[in-house]
Each structure stands twice: as C-alpha cells, then as structure tokens.
Amino acid sequence: MADTQHVPPLESLRFDLFVIVVLSFFAFVATFYLIPWFSPLFINAGLSGKDIGKVEKNVVAESQGTMASAVYLITMFLFIPFHFHPYLLNSKETDFPHGRFVEFICALLSICCMIFLGFADDVLNLKWRHKLLLPTVASLPLLMVYLVNFGSTTIVVPEPLRSVFGVTLDLGFLYYVYMGMLAVFCTNAVNILAGINGVEAGQSFVIGVSIVVHNAMQIHRGALDHQNHELSLFLLLPFLGVTSALLYHNWYPSSCFVGDTFCYFSGMTFAVAGILGHFSKTMILFFIPQVLNFIFSVPQLFRLVPCPRHRLPRLNPETGLLENSTATFRPCDISQLSMMILTVYKSLGVISYRKFEDKDGQTQIEVSNFTLINLLLRAFGPTHERTLTILVLVCQALCSLLAFYLRYVIVLYLYEGENDYNKHMAGLQ
After folding, report:
1. What sign does the CA torsion over 189, 405, 398, 205 have?
2. Secondary element (H or E) of residue 367
3. Which of 13, 23, 103, 265 has its CA 20 to 30 A from that of 302?
4. DSSP secondary structure, 2-61, as one string
5. The whole model's pTM is what?
6. Which of 334, 333, 376 is closest to 351 using CA atoms?
C-alpha cells in the first residue's frame, strides 16, 4: 500500500508548490531560449522539414520536442531533493517514504523511455507495430509500482448496474490491461491528431491545464487520495512550462516542428499522471477529441480504406487556405466491408465522396481523409491554418468542460451516498 503514514503537513505542500512553480517558470524560460539556439544544429544534422502548409515551403527544425522534454527531465530531477528534503535532513532513515520515491523515479523512467522512442521515430521513421509495442513495455515499471504501492483493482459499480454486478467489482488482471492500453493510447493519440502549426502542443497544453485543475479541485476538497493528486500536480506543472514555450515557437507561422518526440513525451506524461494519480478513468474524459478522432480514423489506420502517408490538410496556393486532403483508389482495391464503411460515412456526411473516371477510363473513388481536422474543414469549409488550429483547441476546451461536468455532476447521480462518492474519488472506481 502507499505510504499513507507519511502525510506531509500543509506547510510542506505549500513549500513543494512554491518550488515546483518556480522551477516550472525557469523551465519555460530555458525552453523558450534553447529552441531557437539549437534549431540550426538540428537543421544541420538533417532533422528538418518543409512546412508544406505554407506557400513559401520554409525549412524549419524538426523534433524540437527533444528540447522541451530534456528541460522537463532536468526540472523534475532538480525537484526531487526539494520534495524529499524533510526526510533527508530531519528524519530517520526508517521514516523515508520509499514507495513515493519509487513512484517518482518510475514515472520519470517511463517518460524517459517514451522520449527515446519519439526521438528514434523522428530519426528512423518507425513502423506502427513498434509504436504500439514500445509504449506497452515502457508502462510495465509504472504498473509494477501501482501493484506494489496501491494494488487495488476494485471498482465501485454505478447504481443502475448493481443489481447485476453488485456494489463493487474486482477486475483483477483486466484492470492492469486497461492501464497498459491507456499508456499506449495516450502516447499515440496526440500523434494522430496532428499536422498543422500549434495543434500538437496546443491540445497537450489544454489537456494539461484540465488535469491540473482536476488535481487542484481534488486536493482542495480533501480527497482521500490527495497525495496521489499532489504527485500528478508536480508532474504536470513543469510540463505546462515547457509546453507553453514550445507552443510559442510552434504557433502559426511556426519556426519549428515539435516532432514525434513531443507527442510521445506528452502522451506518456498524461498516462503517468493518470495511473499514479489514481484517476485513469477520468483521464480518458480529457481525451474525448482524441478518442473520437481515433474511432473516426480506424478504417484508415487499420488499412480497411487506403491511407496515404500524410493525412494533413492540403494548401490551396491561390487562396492560402487549407482544404480537405483526400485518398484516391479503385473500387476493386477495397473489400465489401470497406465499401460499407464508406457508405455509412458518406450517409452521415462526415467525408466527401466522389466517383470519377481517370484518363485511362478506369473508375476511381476519391474521399477526404478520416481525421478530426479534415472533418472540421468539411464543416467550416476552406480555412486559414491559424483559424483551424484555434477551432481544434476550442473543441478540446469544450470537451474538457464536458469532462468536468461528467466527472463532478453526472457522477453524483450514478453513485448513491457520500461514502460511495468518496470511494470513487479515492480511486476504488
């Protein structure tokens, strides 16, 4: 079980918050200045790309999430001795909260592993099977720490389902499968909803702010598991510092690309915060746009419908606006199941669909790519890149508000009595 006997006093929490806020500010400053300083080195090393969403097609540095993630790790390493200083200076060795210390170390280990994977993907262009396997392996230390320090796999069943499952239900091994899948999903979800200036860092910033607000509300309410929310808060504040600096440089017109490094770094940071903060199910609520984007993209991600290498919007050089990108293929190249999916999507109006004959007289099908960004372009028409990014972030913010409504209002109707509600808050969900 967790080190519940080592509950720090309010003064210690205030000291920790002061230190982490100060360190987060310096993390912002360091990232803000390091990115333009190191960008030429990345370009010289071949880590660069053309911004194809612009008429000029400027060459900018890629993988600048490497700088943000490096500053983040240094910040967290500096914070650890401050956080544990009462035990290092004034307490006996037997009083040291070893469980909490291991949580910090394993959290940073998992994040560091995903930073390595992201940088490897930027350099080597890894296949999707590697992107699914490696996050699973990287989450194993995290799940072991959860097993040793907490170990609960029991959920409180919502009131309408108690006649079938009882008041509580022990999921056992399936709960760890869920948390492992959460780590895989978080690390890839941001990477799938990408392709325009500011959208990766922007959505990560909105999600990060939402998690911080959730943690602060739980600590203020005196939640039984407040220590877990404190740990999550300590992990997220420096993340917001480095992400805000990266977002400044990645905002339209971008002077750098964040790269897969940042996408995996941000995703694993969220997964770590959710698992060790014991709100892994609440975490999914903050990923509503990413979940919808994934479900919408499944036919292309699993090659049921032809998927181009890049599905980012297409620039119209005459208007300077972004339009739907498309995939073109012959009807004979897809299965009956794929054709059924296209028919459903076409009926729902979520994709553009055009059948035509090419110059050789062969029938071709052209459909817009299955992404949330292309769906927004279909809804609002050709849009400026900056405006499109703002639309995505507005969707992200509105979904966060919906998540808070579900988490703090609707949940009261699903769990009868204050005791059940407190258990739900404490992570016996």
Report:
1. negative
2. strand 363-368
3. 265
4. --TT-PPPHHHHHHHHHHHHHHHHHHHHHHHHHHHHHHHHHHHTT-EEE-TTSSS--EEE
5. 0.92
6. 376
User: What's the rounded Cα separation, in Å, for the pair 390 and 198?
Assistant: 9
Output b/e per residue, 151-183; b: 16+ Cβ within 10 A. Answer: ebbbbbbeeeebeeeeeeeeeeeebbeebbebb
Q: From residue 334, give the alpha-carbon distance in Å to each of 24, 298, 300, 347, 367.
A: 51, 15, 12, 19, 13
Band of residue 5 on the pLDDT scale cut at 50, 70, 90: very low
User: Please, which residues bridge with residue 321 across strands?
Assistant: 316
Q: How far apart are CA 149 and CA 114, in angstroms?
A: 23
The three-point CA angle 259-263-267 to 5° equals 170
CA distance 287 to 270: 10
CA distance from start to end of the chain:
17
As a residue count, the chain comes to 429
pLDDT single digits (tens) 85-101: 877 776 555 578 888 89
C-alpha span between 389 and 170 (Å, rounded): 42
Is 82 exposed, middle or buried (CB count within 10 Å of its CB: 0-12, 13-18, 19+)? middle
**Facing residues of 61 across strands?**
48, 256
Count of beta carbons in the 10 Å neighbourhood of residue 220: 10
3-state helix, strand, coil in the chain (%, to 5): 65, 10, 25
Phi-psi category of residue 166: left, alpha or beta, with phi > 0 → left and psi -120 to 50 → alpha: left
CA dist list (Å): 81 to 5, 22, 76, 135, 216: 20, 15, 10, 28, 23
1 pLDDT tier (thresholds 50, 70, 90): very low
Alpha-carbon Rg for the chain in angstroms: 23
Q: For residue 406, give the DSSP letter.
A: I
Question: Are residues 242 and 74 in contact, defined by beta-carbon separation less than 8 angstroms?
Answer: no
* Contact yes or no for 321/329 (Cβ under 8 A): no
Sign of CA dihedral 376, 379, 385, 391: negative
Q: Under a CB-based contact definition with an 8 Å cutoff, are residues 136 and 184 in contact?
A: yes
